[in-house]
Specification:
It is built from 13 helices and 22 strands. By secondary structure, the chain is of the alpha+beta class.
């Protein structure tokens, strides 16, 4: 019998898997998608929140600051980009300043460091492109940005390299309590099978309530909230250096301006309560709302034509808080309702889940071979000219540029496949090949050819992301 089965390979599932890899146990990570992060996590805004937004009495407010503090060490160990560029929560009228002061007190009570309220003059020195209608802002220097899927893949790779078994293309069809655990009925690569586990972690995102319902009344509900986002070309000018937040509403932190670690700007997200758990569409109304808000905040921002637009679904629970803990079914543990600031809190969520498992009787014997360091792969675009020359002298494949927009080499694409990429999007999210201005218009065929050669499979069997998303037809 398996010790722990984690259902859901998003950022929380992968963070939990990595922490469990420290223990000498048999653990599997199950996901219905072809690769990790292909659910909600791939559409995350990539913000590491400082922590002053979330109320202290809520679980999300209690976990976010500790989660934030973990990212310096995590980025060093796992090799993903992380930049503490700070955030500004802006006020457009003097009547809003008391709310900034309230949020400052809220953050300080939780231990958020460096919070200060800036007047318009101080604000303009930091961010000259902000609108002159903005009268003040709460500055939180500990906030930062990451690439969300790079982070998720890093957690996943390190967990797998330390013994966690990944089961992609695997959908959970049912759960049943049995002696000493639970039985999980699965459809894996189109075939039905069952496995048994002492503990099951429900980290299934927007589908967490459905998963819990297999065991009866889940005790909570999940409602999807769609967020549309727009990625601007690097040529866009007039934007800020820091994360820009409006004052939050009851449903959302509002339309943000997000300078990314890859030197693009993301605008969004919207906050649309919907009933469809699979609706990832974008529309002109969403784009108009986002761009109008961005121009109001940064009048000099020249968005040009966005190079990509996408949507993600936030898992909003009826409690509006994280739902983490044991249930009346022994061995079944919920990690549900993980919306913002879930990505930031993920390291501490993982620690919390491991503590719960140990309290419930999971063996705490450490895995002596655990290695927290993920192999760091070369990045041509992020390297200096001297570093590029030295790299190419040792490995000529890094001189063969496949993706011109992002300056991604054949060597980097092969590295991403060695790290686990099995699809075109798997290559894109790991290496950034196809993530630039032409959005893979130039490099798709080269990436497919390299993937087919490395995996030794016919090129027509390869997919964009999940099974059935074929790109080529074999006539």
């Amino acid at each position: 019998m398996i010790d722990v089965a984690i259902i859901g390979a998003g950022v929380c599932g992968c963070a939990i898997a990595r922490e469990l890899a420290r223990l000498d146990i048999h653990c599997v990570l199950i996901d219905k998608h072809a690769e990790a992060s292909f659910g909600t996590s791939k559409a995350n805004s990539g913000i590491v929140h400082a922590g002053q937004h979330s109320p202290n009495h809520m679980l999300k407010g209690q976990l976010v600051v500790k989660g934030n503090a973990a990212f310096d060490q995590l980025s060093e160990e796992l090799g993903f980009l992380f930049e503490r560029n700070g955030e500004l929560l802006i006020a457009r009228s003097h009547a809003d300043i008391p709310e900034l002061e309230r949020m400052k007190r809220l953050g300080e009570e939780k231990g958020v460091l460096g919070l200060e309220i800036l007047n318009s003059e101080a604000l303009r020195k930091l961010e000259p492109n902000l609108s002159h209608d903005i009268v003040a802002a709460l500055h939180a220097p500990s906030a930062g940005v990451i690439n969300p899927f790079e982070y998720c893949f890093a957690l996943h790779e390190n967990a797998v390299n330390n013994g966690i078994v990944f089961m992609p293309n695997t959908e959970v069809l049912g759960l049943k309590s049995i002696k000493d655990g639970l039985r999980i009925d699965l459809q894996r690569d189109g075939k039905n099978e069952s496995i048994e586990a002492h503990f099951v972690i429900n980290a299934a995102g927007v589908h967490a309530a459905k998963l819990a319902s297999f065991l009866g009344e889940p005790g909570f509900s999940i409602h999807p909230r769609k967020g549309q986002e727009y990625l601007l070309d690097r040529a866009a000018t007039g934007g800020p250096k820091r994360l820009i937040f409006p004052l939050p509403s009851a449903e959302s932190k509002g339309i943000l301006i997000i300078p990314t670690v890859d030197n693009n700007i993301i605008l969004g997200p919207t906050a649309e309560n919907i009933d469809d758990f699979y609706d990832l569409s974008t529309d002109r109304a969403g784009q108009q709302k986002i761009f109008d808000s961005a121009r109001k905040t940064c009048p000099n921002l020249k968005p040009l034509q966005p190079i990509a637009h996408y949507a993600g679904l936030r898992a909003v629970s009826n409690t509006d808080d994280f739902i983490i803990g044991t249930t009346k079914h022994k061995g079944f543990i919920n990690v549900a309702g993980i919306q913002s600031p879930g990505l930031t809190a993920a390291p501490e969520i993982a620690n919390m889940v491991v503590r719960i498992l140990k309290d419930e009787g999971l063996s705490a014997k450490p895995r002596m071979s655990f290695n927290p360091i993920r192999k760091h792969y070369p990045r041509v675009f992020r390297s200096s000219l001297k570093e590029q020359r030295e790299l190419i002298k040792k490995e000529p494949r890094y001189a063969d540029i496949v993706c011109r927009c992002e300056t991604i080499s054949r060597g980097e694409i092969e590295d991403s496949i060695d790290a686990g990429a099995r699809t075109l999007d798997g290559i894109k999210f790991r290496s950034r090949a196809g993530a630039g201005r032409c959005q893979a218009g130039f490099c798709t065929m080269r990436c497919l050819e390299i993937l087919a050669q490395k995996r030794n499979v016919p090129i027509a069997t390869l997919c964009k992301n999940d099974d059935g998303s074929w790109i080529l037809l074999d006539r």
